[in-house]
Amino acid sequence: MEENEILPEEEKKNLTEGEEPVETKSGSSAENDIPLNEETVVPQEIVDTKEDAAEKASYSEDDAGPEDSAGSDDETDAEEETDSDDVSPEDKLPAVQDDDEVMRITADEVEAYSREMVRGELRDIATEKKLPEKKVPFKKLPPLLRRSYTEKGFKRKVLKHIFIPEDRELIAGLFQKGLDPKKPDRLSIPQDVLFTKKEVSRYKYIANEIKGQKKSRIKMIPLIAVASIIVGAVAAVVTFKNPLAKKGLIYVFESIFKAKTDIASVDIRILDSSVTIRGLQVGNKNSVMKNLFEIDKIQADFNLVQLLRKKFVAENLEASGIAWNTDRTYSCYIPHDEEKNDSPFVREVKARANNAIEDLKMQAYDLLGGSDVESIIANARSNIHTPEVTKQAISDTQALIEKWKEKPAELQVEVESFAASVKNLQTINVTSFNIQNPDDVAALRENLKKITSAIEQGKSLTNKVTQVVEEVKSDAVFVNDMVVNVAGTVKSDYDYIVERLTTITGTIANLDRLLLDALDTVGYNMLGEYYPYVEEAIAYAQQLKNNPKPEKKKKTIETKWSKRMEGTDFWYSQNYPSFLIQNVRAQGTGFDARITELTNNQDVRYIPTKGSITLDILNTVHKAEVTVDARTGTRNHLVAADYTGSGFNAAIDGTRFATKSGVPSIDGNAIISLSGTADPTGFTAQGSLALDPVRLYSDGFPNDFVTKYYNIGLAAVTDLNMGFDVGYSKADGLYLKLTGNYGTQFINALKASVLELGKDAKNAAIKRLEQELNNSNNEYVAKAKEFLGIEGDIDLQNMKLSDVQKILEKKKVEIENRLKEEADKAVTEAKKQAESFVQEKTQEATNQLNETLSNTFSSVLGTDSSSSDTAAENVTDRIKNLGQGLFKKP
Q1: How many structural domains does the chain have?
Q2: pTM for the whole structure
Q3: Does any domain span residue 104?
Q4: Which range of residues forms the domain containing residue 145?
Q5: Which of 207, 637, 667, 732 is surrounded by the fewest CB atoms within 10 Å?
């Protein structure tokens, strides 16, 4: 092949448009060729610059004599390497003849393109008109060609390392035998021949290629060193591959599940293309003495050829002996790093959950009109009048106390002074006086006068005290009325409180929202608890979608230059991504899981990842199907999932979310169905939940009575059948909607519990309020008693005065009676004497009359003397009676 060759028209077009020739596998370059126009003007300064670059690339032996060019077969390789190290790429450029004028040339006068290095840039310039070229001497040739060789040495040291036939023929034609006078039997290049710079550049290029071929010879020391490294690396891999893999897997599992992970053994067999993991135990971070799951054996067979290409490709991965919630011998707790900042979704969930809790508290507090007994009393106290009435009564009574508090002492002085003045009169012994004695009678009469005077004086004082008593009694009536009024107000307020609290406990504000908000709270908190896992899954799926895709290589147009013999090019197919497990199968007691196309780049095979899982243990069945579609250009959601479950125990502890906030705990047998999708911008999920039977309970609220109502209402919900619709997007935020049958059960039960248990709360509040009312009443009663004490003191003085007055009255009566008694005795004696005298005279007259009458009747009646006697006796008796009547005591 000639030094320069005209390019095909297509390649000319590409080069004209500015596309650089691409280096081929053979290592040749089109670096020195450029396209021509029909006529191109080349400034001389460009030519001078190019020539200067060529001169700089020349060897430093410009001043060496002919003897320096002679060589022998015995020269060492070290010399060859030293002499040829200074060859630069510019040596490959053809020489240009110096000329001060502008050179013009047509395309018919050249056979090749050229490309010049001008001021550090490759530029297309026109080829010059062929002028006589400057020649360089023999000493400009590379040292390898300045030597002389035997035929055998020439073949071994030169021709053997030239693989391009054209180059081999060119070099073989330069060497001739007998040109070296010292060694005529050797082959060498004539020393008197001149060469163009373009020829020297080509010879230097070939010499460098020969040197490079010689360097590729096997050298034992480097070979042994490399072999030792390989053997050491293999030994290290064989020795440490399993422990390192074990540590790596433990780190991965602990990073994912945030709990300690145990692996009994890892066995990687490279030649067998298999990986076996035994005794995998992953702890449960929420129950540190339990395993989340454990797998007895995991077996994977991988493609070793693909592994050598830095790709992990396994057709099947199987897991067996899977168990759940097994016991651990030590805690799986791992200290957590600093918590990451919450995502916008988590922040919104927490805000919604907190708001739901606060709403739940407020609604529950409305059960009794307050958050506790104090607030209930405070709400009821605003309509109670007892404190106001009591305050006014105390004020009025205090005024009366100020008015009367000095009066008892004043009256006491007067009464005691009067009592002292009549003390002697009160102690008179009336019986000691002898009525028969005129002096005693006179003394009695004198004392009677004094007593009568004292009584008159006492009456005057009594009238004064009585007036005071009447006035204080009037004020006492007012105070008593105030007491009655306060007591009535207390009773009225008590009745109001009873009615008020009975009404409150029988009415619940927003009752239909109470349980719904409670379950909303659970829903929001469950979202906040489990969404981070969903978020991590979405992030991983998004990574699959964002993985850099293999770029399609542009077809390069190879410029045909002088090249070595064609070799074999190996092109690796892109049928597999760097990580691929085509089928994953995990099995255990009641457990079966399958995953297909588990890969880190779905675009290579353009197949989405699909997974399914079935878990059936103790009549508990879970079924789930998940599709992750991270392919470029797909219209499907990044993640799509369907789930159904039945027979499992749905246990949710509400106190994990908040305490004393009414967040219910749920315990029951669940049947759930769920269908959802997720993308980097958000997610949606719809489904239904049936809990039958179910038990709802709560630690309640700070108010014990509300807690009692609330838990009775929760306990009445024996089954839940509800639908849910939940979603989140960065644009619209979070939404959660629950529907179902639970509201009616809860409302009816809560109403019943309010009616039944309202007495407890009512009585407690009433007791407190009644105590307050009684305290107010007692406060006034105490003040009223203080006034009544003053009244009592006044009454006491009145009573003392009255007692003195009574004593005086009594003494007066005694004296009067004593004097009257003696007079009555004298009258009685006289009366008796008169009666005796009358009786004697009457008897005498009677006897005389009887005799007279008897004689008279005898003469009248005749001989019947008995009849006359009887008639005379009758007349006599009547006369006697008449006489006795005349002398009877009046």
Answers
A1: 1
A2: 0.42
A3: yes
A4: 9-217
A5: 732
